[in-house]
Structures are given as structure tokens and as C-alpha cells.
Design goal:
The complex is a heterodimer of chains A (about 700) and B (about 250). By secondary structure, chain A is mostly helical. Helix content of chain A is about 50%, strand content about 5%. The chains are: A mainly alpha (about 700), B alpha/beta (about 250). The interface of A and B includes residues 394 and 495 of A. The structure holds flavin-adenine dinucleotide and iron/sulfur cluster (SF4) (2 copies). One iron/sulfur cluster binds near residues 300, 303, 305, 325 and 375 of chain A.
């Protein structure tokens, strides 16, 4: 179709475009390679294929925003179709006699029968329409409706270019490209139809009805459509649309270790130097992050799904996981394609995320779980904390007190070690000391359940139930230290290691078959992180132990609790982190309560706001707290299922007991809804006989 | 600028204090840094950061466990650690002040920091006595120190919330109540790294221990009855209180 001169011009343009594109790709590869090492990704081809399939079915984006995700299908499959369409168009330009429109005989290409050609044309035509429709919807969403989901709150640190609307510019350029490119291609198809409408190209036929056929038109449209492609290819390597290709790759290289296992604070290969006698943990500058975290920024769709589910963001804190990724991306762009390489030498807390935001993260994992391309903004945040801690940055006084107490007392409550098992001495029966006698189950109690007077009554009930069921269990009394889950997530890796050593020492002296925990946080680190320190134990949460005891007939439901209507809050570290959603629900079913699921449940459960050291904070920020919002969610759920039963909010985490009891008070919902630990329901259902501590008061008087 | 900080380790009161014989059972109690000394270490490091110099921490090792707090001080920014191998839990304040002054004299200090008091003996006299031995001015109850040339500007707090600003000519001894900024956190990796690499200079105490105070007896607080906590809703609690008052014939 093309003349010789046209061919030369096109080849020159194409080579230029490919040159700039390769330069763009090389810049990405170079930036990513500057990052520190990450845990090895095993079996890369297989996981890439798996990710490819997930992307093909768009599985990860459908985790939320179902309607927009459906519209995104048009974009996704449209662009894939257009990759083929462009290829065919180029072939047509260069190979005389090759065209796919007329369905005629192609002596040179016998395999191209009219069936293939018609199918191809139909798909291309329909997908053109789908592309135009979806791009228009997304442009309208961004520029006319101005969807709030695409914006950031005022108090969030943003790269100046982002603040000035860099993302909008990107979207506008790529959106306009898609529209003009597709329009040009459609017009080209319309101009070809010298015989009038073709049933296999409905849209082109419609346009043909208006504009008629024109050989010059075909020629011009060919050039317009493909020149756009040559322009956009290198542009994409410099825009947020790198996610087209990096997204799926990133998903394929995503974390393979358990969710609950943080990457090491000091990546493999990082050593001590004369200026830093301690090998530097975590990240101060961009290239202290692992290469994966840098790749994350290229993969980021900038969809803000993560921001939407972030409890800290909800609470009005200056934290947005997506802003973190976007800022990283713009920081690199300024350094590589812009004129600000020196900004890479600024601390991340000045360029990417404010220190206040770093300290606001609850490490709930919601952002990581929801991300369609496998990004881990939370991992960046923890790495930044790790370095801030080692560099002696100022930290919240409450957090500091907790850490100091953990260092000296092994608990965060400034209580002496010997007081840890005091609650057990107040029971009607002896609780074995697992450090001295053999037990089946070593119960790792945790700080809150051992010391907090609001939780200790429930701890005692757990002991009584275990005792009632004849479970052979014991605790380690003063030999137990805090397991260190939240210490590690605050970024105090050294203290975490110290606590692990203390507990490993204690485990070494104890004799047991399994570990049972009442605290999901301890559960998580014992299960997922202690193995890295040689502690390979069979760790379970008390809810699964209870299910087992019921199944074995060692506990039986004597009273059905049909007078209660309950909902259940999945603790982050039990549910989202460790996938235990069924045991608590099974127990609720067994005890016969009326159960209503809140809209945000299981994988999308909303964090109570206590994790990652937030419960230690001395300062309480203003605004509606996540726990308060959750209580309202529960009440709305009950409103939709009205009954005259007593309303209960059921938890299975000592920290939840504190957070939600408090939230019921601060929202003024006392008397409407009550927070209870699941164990309290179990006690009532099995008819556990308990000495009533209130009765002691009466007798003393 | 040579800055010296006298620090002390004292029994932790996070636990019930075990008493053995006529004193605390030193073997079954954890030792921690005196909380006012945390403040004075911070104040010393802040002065060093502002004016340059070195911070030396010094303490009397009364039960052979001082290294822990010296390492902590080094991790918080002190440069050198010295321990006086007193090894005598019964040494009184006069004795310790003498040992400390003797050791500090050789360091030609510009400022000596001490905590305003230590919560184990509640004497508050070590700082003043060191000042007396070294013939330096003493100022206690201090809440901030700034140094310019040969003079320090010192804030001191009085009862009732009054504060005063003093100019003190160096060298001087300061009893710190609170540092200008809250004490920084010492990351455990740093403390552990210091513990592995730091050298602590040992100084023998000058002269024999000659304590003139002898502790005759130490007794834990006597429990005289116990409080009952009423639980339940406010109505229930109120009813219980009324019942109690009635049963005692008070209502
Ligand atoms: C002005 C004033 C106001 C007071 N106000 C109150 C009050 O409001 N409430 C209250 O409860 N008490 C108060 N006290 C405490 C008072 O009751 C005590 O007599 C006394 O201050 C307690 O001192 P101490 O025994 O801890 O002192 P010391 O044991 O003499 O310790 C003081 C400091 O000397 C250094 N030091 C001591 N021993 C060593 C060692 N072996 N090695 C290295 N360094 C060492 C440390 O820096 C230590 O912090 C006040 C005291 C004073 C002087
Ligand atoms: S882990 Fe949770 S709190 Fe932290 S950034 Fe992600 S969503 Fe927000
Ligand atoms: S990190 Fe993931 S969820 Fe967040 S904006 Fe980027 S792509 Fe979306």
C-alpha cells in the first residue's frame, strides 16, 4: 500500500520511536536494579504464567469496584485487540496485496480464508467501540464527575507535579490518544468499504454511510492511526501507564512468603561499614528500598483502591498508600527524565510519605491485599520505620515507653515479669507451668490478655473452658515475653530479635506438642516469623482448638443462645493475614446465635486501628476512629435485620476487646450493643460454672 | 567541651520488690537506669550536639551489673564509659560522692551532670557533694541547659510552677530534673552492638569503703485490708454502695 518513500519515512519514524521506547525501558530497569535485594522469587516462569492468567481474567481488579472493573474490561481487551490490529495494519502497509478487509482470495496467504478475516474484523470493530466507550467513561469520571476516589486529602504529602495535576495530564494524553487512534483506525476501515456496508464491521459500516469510501482516506487514516502509536509507545514508558506491562510482571514477582512474614530488615548482601557499624536496616532513601518496592511504583495503576480501604486514611491521618506509590514514581521520573536527580538524595520522609503518615499505619495489610498489581505499600512504610528507629528519630512518647518497657520487662505495660502469670494463680484450679512440666498445648497468652484488667476475666474463662474440656495445657508464666509482632512492625527489629531470643530460650526449656494463642498478633509472628529464627512450631488460634474440642465431643452446647443477635469482626492478623475465617463463624453457628455478616468481612474486614503499635500511641488524633466506624457498621447491619434480641459485637482478639468496648462508649452506643469475646458465648453455651467475682463483693460487705 | 554524666542503676519497681534480710534481694531484682539519669544523659548529649565535645558517663558499680546502663548511655550518644568498681551495695551517698569526685577530677570536666535524685535512696545529695569535692558551683532541679563560651544558661524549676533562668560560669555541676527534649529512644540493635564492641574503662575506688550509715531493716509495705471494686452498671453500683452503707449502719 505504501510508496517506497512512505516506507522509508515510516521505518525511520518507527526506529526513532522504538529507540525512545527502549531508552524508557532501560531507564525503568536501571532504576529498579538500584534497589536493594529482595527475598528470592522462586519458579519465576510459573508464577508469571499464573499472574498472566489472573490478569487475563482481570481477577485482581474485581476485588472491589465491580462496575468500573467491568468497564475496564473494554479498555483491557480493547488494547490487546489493538496490538494485533496495529500489527496487521503495518503488514498491510508493507506487503502488497495483504489486506484483511475484502475477504477476497489471497494467493500468497492461503490460510487467510474469509472466516478468519471476518472474525478478525468483527472483533476489531466491536472492540473499537468498547475502547471508545470505556475511555470516555474513565475520562468523564476523572474530568467531569471528578470522582473523589481519584483525589488525595489536603494533609497528604504529594509530589509537586502530582499536586499540579500530573496524573490528570497523563490520563488526558493517553485517553486522547486512544480516542484519536481508534477513531482514525475506524475511519480507515470505513473508507475502505467501496461496496457499502459490511456485516462484520458494523461501526465502520455506519461511518461509511456518512463519509463514504475513499482510497486517499484509507491512506491518511493509516498514517494518523499508526503515527499515534509511534508517539505513544515511548510516552507510555514515561507515564503512569507503565502499569500496562509492569503491572502483570509485578504481580508475577509478588511476595511468595506468607503474608505475615516481613522481609528481613537488613536485606541479604548489606553489610556493616566503617560509618555504619550496624548494617543499615530498612530505608531512608529511595534506593534503600528493595528493587521490588521500586518496581511497585512502575506497576501502580494509581487507582487508589488501597487508599479507599486504609483505616489510617479513613481516620483522617496524613497517610495514603497510593500517594506513597505515586510519589515514588514521580520522584524517579524527576530524577531520570526530569532535571532533579538530587531529589533522590532527600529522605523518603520528605519526598514520598511524611513521618507522621509513616507512624499512622496500623499494618492491617488491607492495601496490599486489595492491590490489583501486587504492590506492598505497607512494606515501604515498615522499612522507613526501621531506619527512623535506628537513626534515633523522635517517636511518639507512648510508643517509646512501650518499647522501653518491652526491652526491660518483656511486656509493654511496665509490669514486672513475675506478675505475668498472676491471673492464673487466682483460678480455682492450678494451671500447669509448661516450663516445668510436659503439656500438650503450650498456651502463649500475650501481654494484653495477661495484664489488662479489662481482658483478664476473658483469659480466665479461656483457662476454665480448656480445663472443663480436659485439655492438657500450660503457660510459661514469667518466662513468656511479648512475641514481638507489633514491635517488629513498629520497626524496632533489634528489640524484636531480643524478644524472639527470650521466647526461644523459654520454648527450649518447655515441653509441649503445640502452641495455642489467644492473641492473633502473637499467633501471626509465632506462626510465620519464628520459623526464620529456628522456631518451627505447630501454632493454632484458640478458636480452632475450640472447634476441635466440640468436634471431639469434649465440649457440648447445653444452652442455645437464641436470645442474641451477633456480628463478628475478623481481626487482621487472624483473618486477612492467616486466612482463618471459618473457625469463629463455625463456633457462632454451634452456639445458636442469630448471625449477621457486616459488609466488610473476612478478606475485606476493616482494621480496628490498634495494630502496628498504634495502640501504644500517647496522642490520640481527632476524627472518627476506625473502631467507632466499625461499631456503626455493625449497628447498620443489625438495623437491616431487625429483631428484639440482644445485640452483640463478637471479637476474638484481646486488643479488639479494648478498642471496641471503648468505641461503644465514645459513640454513645452503650445499652444498644455490647462487645464480647467469643469465649464468653462459649462459656454460656456450654453452661460453664464460674465463681462470680461480683458475688465476692457482696460477701465482703 | 568535656561533659561528664554520673549515672546510677537502681532496682526496677515494675515488680513487687523482694526483700531479703535487711535489704532488697539484689539477686532477684532487675536493675534499671535511674529515670532522672535518663534525663541528664539526654541533656548532656543535647549540649554536646550543640557545642561539640565528648560525653563521658561514669557510675559506681555496686553489684557488678552496671555495664547494662553504661551501654544504654553509649547507645544514646555518650562517647566514653567509666565504671568505679565499688562492688559494695551498702556504700552510702558520702562514700559514692567521694569515689565519683575522685574519678571525675581526672577528666577535667566543664560540666558534670547528675540526676536530681535517684528513686532508690531518695537522698539527692550526690550532685551537691561532687560539686563540693570538686569546688564547683551546683545547681539542681534543672530543666534545660544551654552553653555559650564559658557560661551556661540554666533553667531551674521551683515549687508552684515557678521557673528561673540562671547564668552559671563553667565548670559546674548540674542536677537534672528534666532535659530540654524528652530522652531519645536507644534502639536495641545499637545497644547490643555497643555491648559487643564498647570498652568500659575501670577505675578502682579510692580508699576503703567507710559507710557510716547502716541499714537495719527493710520492710515491704504492710497490707492493711483491701479495696473492693464494685462492677456493673452505674445503677447496680449505686445500689451496692447503698447496701454497704446500710450494712454498716451508716444509712
Ligand atoms: C529540691 C528538692 C526537691 C525535691 N522534691 C521532691 C518531690 O517533689 N517529690 C519527691 O518524691 N521527692 C523530692 N525530693 C527528693 C528528696 O526527698 C530526696 O531527699 C532526695 O532528693 C533523693 O535523692 P537520691 O537519694 O535519689 O539521691 P542520690 O542517690 O544522691 O542520686 C542523685 C543523683 O546522683 C547520681 N548518683 C547517685 N549515686 C550514683 C552512683 N552510685 N553512681 C553514679 N551516679 C550516682 C545520679 O545522677 C543520681 O540521679 C526533692 C529533693 C530536693 C533536693
Ligand atoms: S497497612 Fe493498613 S493502615 Fe497501613 S497503609 Fe496499608 S491499609 Fe493503610
Ligand atoms: S498501590 Fe495498588 S491499589 Fe494502590 S493505587 Fe497503586 S495499583 Fe492501586
Amino acid at each position: 500500500m505504501l510508496t517506497t518513500i512512505e516506507r522509508i519515512v515510516f521505518v525511520v519514524l518507527a526506529l526513532t520511536s522504538v529507540g525512545f521506547t527502549i531508552h524508557g525501558i532501560k531507564t525503568i530497569v536501571d532504576s529498579v536494579r538500584k534497589g536493594r535485594s529482595a527475598p528470592e522469587v522462586k519458579n519465576i516462569p510459573a508464577s508469571l504464567v499464573k499472574a498472566g492468567i489472573a490478569v487475563l481474567f482481570q481477577r485482581t481488579i474485581f476485588r472491589t469496584r465491580k462496575i468500573l472493573s467491568t468497564i475496564h474490561l473494554g479498555l483491557f481487551f480493547g488494547l490487546i485487540t489493538y496490538a494485533f490490529v496495529n500489527l496487521v495494519d503495518i503488514l498491510e502497509g508493507f506487503i502488497p496485496g495483504f489486506d484483511l478487509v475484502y475477504g477476497g482470495k489471497h494467493p500468497a496467504f492461503p490460510f487467510l480464508n474469509s472466516g478468519i478475516i471476518n472474525t478478525f474484523n468483527l472483533i476489531a470493530d466491536v472492540m473499537s467501540g468498547a475502547l471508545l466507550f470505556s475511555v470516555t467513561v474513565f475520562l468523564v469520571r476523572r474530568f467531569i464527575v471528578k470522582d473523589k476516589q481519584l483525589t488525595y486529602r489536603e494533609n497528604i504529602l504529594l509530589n509537586p507535579k502530582v499536586k499540579a495535576g500530573g496524573q490528570n495530564k497523563d490520563s488526558l494524553i493517553v485517553g486522547t490518544f486512544v480516542i484519536l487512534h481508534v477513531a482514525a483506525r475506524l475511519m480507515g476501515q470505513a473508507f475502505r468499504l467501496t461496496d457499502g456496508a459490511d456485516a462484520f464491521t458494523p461501526i465502520a459500516s455506519f461511518l461509511n454511510g456518512i463519509f463514504g469510501a475513499s482510497q486517499t482516506g484509507v491512506h491518511v487514516a493509516w498514517w494518523v492511526s499508526l503515527c499515534w502509536v509511534l508517539y505513544i509507545l515511548p510516552y507510555i514508558t514515561r507515564s503512569k501507564h507503565t502499569h500496562f506491562t509492569v503491572g502483570p510482571v509485578n504481580l508475577g514477582l509478588a511476595k511468595q512468603n506468607p503474608r505475615g512474614q516481613l522481609d528481613p530488615a537488613v536485606p541479604a548482601g548489606v553489610r556493616a561499614t566503617r560509618t555504619s557499624p550496624i548494617p543499615e536496616p530498612g530505608a531512608k532513601f529511595l534506593h534503600d528500598l528493595s528493587w521490588k518496592r521500586i518496581l511497585d511504583s512502575y506497576a501502580c495503576v494509581q487507582c487508589n483502591r488501597c487508599q479507599e480501604v486504609c483505616p489510617a486514611n479513613f481516620y483522617g491521618r496524613p497517610l495514603s498508600p497510593s500517594a506513597l506509590e505515586v510519589n515514588k514514581r514521580y520522584l524517579i521520573k524527576e530524577a531520570t527524565f526530569g532535571s532533579h536527580p538530587e531529589r533522590l538524595l532527600l529522605p523518603l520522609t520528605e519526598t514520598v510519605i511524611s513521618a507522621e503518615a509513616v507512624w499512622a499505619c496500623t499494618t492491617c495489610h488491607a492495601c496490599v491485599s486489595i492491590c490489583p498489581v501486587g504492590n506492598e505499600p505497607m512494606a515501604d512504610i515498615i522499612d522507613i520505620r526501621r531506619r527512623l528507629i535506628i537513626d534515633g528519630a523522635e517517636i511518639d512518647s507512648g510508643v517509646q515507653n512501650a518499647l522501653q518497657s518491652l526491652a526491660t520487662n518483656g511486656n509493654w505495660m511496665n509490669k514486672g515479669k513475675r506478675l505475668r502469670g498472676r491471673w492464673a494463680k487466682e483460678l480455682e484450679f492450678p494451671v500447669k507451668n509448661a516450663s516445668e512440666e510436659q503439656v500438650d498445648y503450650l498456651w502463649f497468652v500475650g501481654d494484653t490478655a495477661s495484664f489488662d484488667e479489662r481482658v483478664v476475666p476473658n483469659t480466665k474463662i479461656v483457662a476454665r473452658i480448656f480445663n472443663e474440656a480436659g485439655l492438657d495445657f500450660g503457660i510459661m508464666y514469667q518466662n513468656e515475653s511479648n512475641a514481638g509482632n507489633d514491635v517488629r512492625r513498629v520497626g524496632e527489629e533489634g528489640l524484636f530479635e531480643q524478644l524472639v531470643e527470650q521466647n526461644m530460650g523459654a520454648f527450649g526449656k518447655a515441653q509441649f506438642k503445640k502452641i495455642v494463642t489467644t492473641d492473633p498478633h502473637s499467633f501471626n509472628t509465632l506462626k510465620n516469623e519464628y520459623p526464620q529464627f529456628g522456631g518451627k512450631f505447630d501454632v493454632t488460634h484458640y478458636t480452632s482448638v475450640l472447634v476441635k474440642l466440640f468436634d471431639e465431643g469434649k465440649l457440648t452446647v447445653k444452652n442455645k443462645l437464641s436470645n442474641y443477635q451477633v456480628t463478628f469482626h475478623d481481626p487482621c492478623y487472624l483473618g486477612r493475614y492467616n486466612g482463618e475465617f471459618t473457625a469463629p463463624r463455625k463456633l457462632l453457628e454451634m452456639v445458636g446465635v442469630k448471625f449477621n455478616e457486616m459488609p466488610r468481612n473476612c478478606e475485606t474486614s476493616f482494621c480496628c486501628g490498634a495494630g502496628g503499635g498504634q495502640i501504644w500511641n500517647g496522642k490520640v488524633a481527632p476524627g472518627e476512629r476506625p473502631a467507632e466506624n466499625r461499631i456503626k457498621e455493625a449497628l447498620t447491619t443489625f438495623d437491616k435485620n431487625p429483631s428484639d434480641k440482644k445485640l452483640l459485637f463478637i471479637v476474638t482478639c484481646p486488643k479488639d476487646m479494648i478498642m471496641y468496648s471503648d468505641a461503644v462508649k465514645t459513640t454513645g452506643k452503650e445499652g444498644k450493643i455490647e462487645v464480647r469475646d467469643l469465649i464468653q458465648l462459649i462459656a454460656e453455651a456450654v453452661g460453664l460454672e464460674m465463681p462470680l467475682e461480683a458475688e465476692a463483693v457482696a460477701s465482703a460487705a | 567541651m568535656n561533659i561528664v554524666v554520673a549515672i546510677k542503676h537502681i532496682p526496677s519497681i515494675a515488680d513487687d520488690l523482694p526483700v531479703k534480710g535487711n535489704n532488697v534481694d539484689f539477686d532477684s531484682v532487675d536493675f534499671v537506669l535511674n529515670e532522672f539519669d535518663e534525663q541528664s544523659i539526654e541533656q548532656a548529649v543535647l549540649v554536646k550536639e550543640a557545642t561539640g565535645g565528648t560525653v563521658t558517663v561514669v557510675g559506681v558499680d555496686m553489684i557488678g551489673e552496671l555495664d547494662g546502663v553504661l551501654h544504654l548511655a553509649l547507645a544514646k550518644g555518650a562517647d566514653k564509659a567509666v565504671k568505679i568498681t565499688g562492688d559494695d551495695p551498702a556504700a552510702d551517698s558520702h562514700q559514692q560522692a567521694k569515689w565519683l569526685a575522685e574519678a571525675i577530677k581526672g577528666m577535667s570536666p566543664n560540666i558534670v551532670f547528675a540526676g536530681v535524685q535517684a528513686s532508690n535512696d531518695l537522698d539527692g545529695q550526690i550532685g551537691p557533694m561532687i560539686a563540693a569535692h570538686l569546688d564547683m558551683p551546683y545547681i539542681g532541679g534543672v530543666s534545660s541547659v544551654e552553653v555559650a563560651g564559658d557560661t551556661a544558661t540554666v533553667n531551674k524549676e521551683f515549687a508552684g510552677g515557678f521557673g528561673a533562668k540562671y547564668a552559671v560560669s563553667l565548670p559546674m555541676v548540674v542536677g537534672v530534673q528534666a532535659s530540654t527534649k524528652p530522652p531519645r529512644y536507644a534502639p536495641i540493635s545499637k545497644v547490643r552492638q555497643v555491648a559487643q564492641t564498647a570498652t568500659i574503662e575501670k577505675v578502682a575506688p579510692s580508699g576503703e569503703s567507710s559507710a557510716r550509715l547502716t541499714m537495719k531493716k527493710m520492710a515491704p509495705p504492710v497490707v492493711t485490708g483491701h479495696a473492693e471494686m464494685f462492677t456493673g452498671s452505674s445503677k447496680e453500683v449505686a445500689a451496692k454502695i447503698v447496701d454497704l452503707l446500710k450494712s454498716k449502719g451508716l444509712a
